[in-house]
Amino acid sequence: MARRWAGWGAGPSGAGAAGGPGRIFLGLMAVFSAAVAAALWREGRGAAAGVALLAAAYFGLRVAGVIGRRRGGDDDGT
């Protein structure tokens, strides 16, 4: 009998088990998202530029630790 797939991140070795993305990665994503937003704005694609700008803001907030999982907090058991 085939086992049901438990989904991404299931179990102790699933996605996120290593603590999630690092600050360097998140910082690079913030910079690249801002660059994409600027390029899209110059092309006159305002809606797409707005979405890219929101992504840059999200990644910036993650880098700053305002949102997302914080290491050493109550939610990760350390």
Helix/strand order, N-terminal first: HH
Query: Could you give the distance between the termini?
Result: 38 Å
What Rg, in angstroms, do the CA atoms define? 17 Å
Weakly predicted, low-confidence segments = 74-78
Strands, total number = 0
Number of helices: 2
- The proportion of strand residues reads under 5%
Mean pLDDT: 81
Query: Which class best fits the helix and strand makeup?
Result: mainly alpha
Biggest sheet features:
none
Gross morphology is extended
Residue share in helix: 40-55%
Write the layout of secondary structure elements.
Layout: H1 23-42, H2 46-64
Helix pairs in contact: 1-2
Keywords: Membrane, Transmembrane, Transmembrane helix
Can you put this structure into words, describing what you see?
50% of the residues lie in helices and 0% in strands. The chain is mainly α and 78 residues long. It has a domain at 23-65. The model is unreliable at 74-78 (pLDDT under 50).
Question: How would you summarize what this structure contains?
Answer:
Keywords: Membrane, Transmembrane, Transmembrane helix. The protein is an all-alpha fold and 78 residues long.
